[in-house]
Hints:
This protein has 281 residues and is of the alpha/beta class. It has two domains: 4-112, Rossmann fold (3-Layer(aba) Sandwich), CATH 3.40.50.10700; 116-280, Rossmann fold, CATH 3.40.50. It has nine helices and nine strands. It has helices at 15-25, 44-56, 68-81, 90-100, 116-130, 155-164, 199-212, 224-241, 253-270, and strands at 4-10, 33-38, 59-64, 85-87, 145-149, 169-173, 191-196, 244-247, 279-280. The strands form two sheets. Strands 6-5-7-8-9 form a five-stranded parallel sheet, sandwiched between helices. The protein has a four-stranded parallel sheet with strand order 2-1-3-4, sandwiched between helices. The two termini are 41 Å apart.
Amino acid sequence: MNPLNLHLVSDSTGETLEMIAKAALAQFDNPTVARHFWPMVRSLQHLDRIVPELAAHPGLVLYTLVNPETRQRLEDHCRHLGLPAVAVLDQVTAALEAQLGQEARGRSGRQHMMDESYFRRVEAIQYTIAHNDGLGHEDWEEADVLLVGVSRSSKTPTSIYLANRGYKVANLPLVIESPPPPALFGLRRPLVVGLTTTPERLIQIRRNRLLSLNEATETAYVDNERVRAELQFARRMFADHGWPVIDVTRRSIEETAAAVIRLLQERARRGEGEPGAGGIL
C-alpha cells in the first residue's frame, strides 16, 4: 500500500499543525503516512517553490496560513493539482470570533510571541532543570509542583513537559536507604504529587535502561522483591502525608502531565495552598 503524502504547510514553526496532525492520525490503526513539512511559508515566492513538491507527491494538504494572499495562492495551486486542502484552524477561529465578538488579528506565529507567558515558560524550564533529581531543595517552596517517586517512575520527563507548559517543577527520587530532606514535609505552596507504577512495568523500564548503558541487568535495581519493597515504601509515604498519587503504568508522559494539571486546577478551585485529598488517579 502506497503511503499517504501528508503536506503540512505553516507560516510559523508548524508546531501547532504537527500536533493537530499527530492527534488526528492517532485515531487510525498504523496508518502509512509520508509527512512533508513546510514551515515559515510567509511569501508567495516561498509558496511557489514548494508547489513542484506538491505535484510530485500528491496527497492531503493541511495548512495554517493567515495571510489572505498566501492562503488563496495555496488553495488555487491545490485546486489546479486536484489536491484536497484543509485550513485546520478556520472553524475554531470562526467560532471564537463569534463568541468573543471580535475579529482574529491574523498574525503569523502570534502564539510564539515573546510576551509575559513566553518568559514565564523560559523561567519554568530553567527552574525545573536546576531542581531535577532532588537538587535545590532549599528553594522548593518556589515550585508549583513537586513530583516524588522511585527511580524510573517518569519524574524527569513529566517535569520537563510541565515546564514547557509554564509550571515550575522540582522532582525527588525516593530511596529507602536515603531519607528525603526535611524540607519536603513542610512545603506549603507546591503541590506534592506521588508517581507510582506496577513492579512488572518498573522492572521492564529499569532493565531497558541498564541495557542502554551496557550494564549488568541482574542487580538489586531490578530484583523483584527489592522493587516491590521500594514501591511499597513510596506508597506508604504518599498515604502518610495525604499526597495525591498518579499511577503512570499505562499513561504516556502527556497523560501524566494532564493529570497533574487537573490536580492543580482542582486545588486552585478549593483555595490556594490547601492540601489535596489522597488517592490514586
